[in-house]
Design brief:
Elements: E1 4-10, E2 16-23, H1 28-31, H2 33-42, E3 48-51, H3 58-67, E4 70-73, H4 87-98, H5 101-104, H6 111-130
Parallel strand pairs: 3-4
Antiparallel strand pairs: 1-2
């Protein structure tokens, strides 16, 4: 595999619910719908899913019909760069995870191992949040 594409479903806080790592040459709508189905089966209180244009098509209608969840495709406005609503939540999550050394380069041989490192990075981030973002070192008493 020459490249990898990471797909993640995150909540409103930016915490990863499900991650999938696959080949970079696979289209989103072909390779990753099972990620959405996995999340919808386990998180029944989901009310709305925001996705980019790579998920347009039958998937949108299927999710709304079967699960009753609103599925919204975020459209680009005009030419060039435009800020998309709520897109920053996913991008912020990837930026947090890139701070971990294991995810800055692709050291893993198998995609499943790389997905595991994404989860390890998210666990590390959540533990730091529980600790109030402070490092506490044990002070030696002599």
């Amino acid at each position: 595999m020459k490249g990898r594409k990471r797909t993640a479903v995150v909540d409103v806080l930016g915490l990863i619910l499900k991650c999938h790592v696959g080949a970079a040459n696979q289209a989103d709508v072909k390779a990753d719908p099972w990620v959405l189905f996995w999340v919808l089966e386990r998180y029944e209180r989901l009310a709305k899913i925001l996705a980019d244009q790579g998920y347009e098509g039958d998937l949108e209608r299927d999710i709304e019909a079967v699960y009753g969840v609103m599925f919204e495709i975020v459209q680009h406005e005009g030419k060039g760069f435009s800020v998309q609503p709520q897109r920053w939540i996913v991008e912020r999550t990837w930026a947090w995870l890139e701070n971990g050394r294991a995810l800055t380069r692709d050291y893993e041989r198998l995609p499943a191992n790389h997905a595991g490192m994404v989860y390890v990075g998210m666990i590390r981030l959540m533990l730091r949040r529980l600790e109030n973002n402070r490092r506490r070192w044990k002070k030696e008493t002599t």
